[in-house]
């Protein structure tokens, strides 16, 4: 049994050289929103959900991106209602939000 049931990593990387980076798409806002929704729903903590910051995950072309383990499902989103859907459907109910899954070919 894992310590956390699901562990989410949000890329919050900001590049200064003009290359695409997740911070250009308010990754911090999505991270903050996800963390507070997980807490509000009582999902946070041991045997539950942990939401962490990450540096570049090397899939910047699809930014903003986050990955959920143990399923290793990668997401990209447009707004906070998409984050709500990921929290409620995947993190709480275990159902992947297929429409927000990052296609396999998207890399840096
Ligand atoms: S800057 Fe976010 S994946 Fe690279």
From TrEMBL:
Protein name per its UniProtKB record: Ferredoxin
Family annotation (InterPro entries): Thioredoxin-like_sf
Superkingdom of the source species: Bacteria
Organism: Pelomonas baiyunensis
């Amino acid at each position: 049994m894992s310590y956390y049931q699901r562990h989410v990593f949000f890329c919050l990387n900001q590049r200064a050289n003009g290359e695409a980076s997740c911070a250009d798409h308010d990754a911090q806002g999505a991270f903050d929103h996800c963390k507070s929704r997980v807490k509000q729903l009582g999902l946070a903590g041991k045997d539950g959900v942990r939401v962490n910051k990450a540096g570049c995950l090397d899939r910047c072309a699809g930014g903003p991106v986050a990955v959920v383990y143990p399923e290793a499902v990668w997401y990209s989103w447009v707004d906070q209602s998409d984050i709500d859907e990921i929290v409620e459907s995947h993190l709480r109910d275990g159902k992947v939000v297929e429409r927000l899954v990052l296609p396999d070919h998207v890399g840096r």
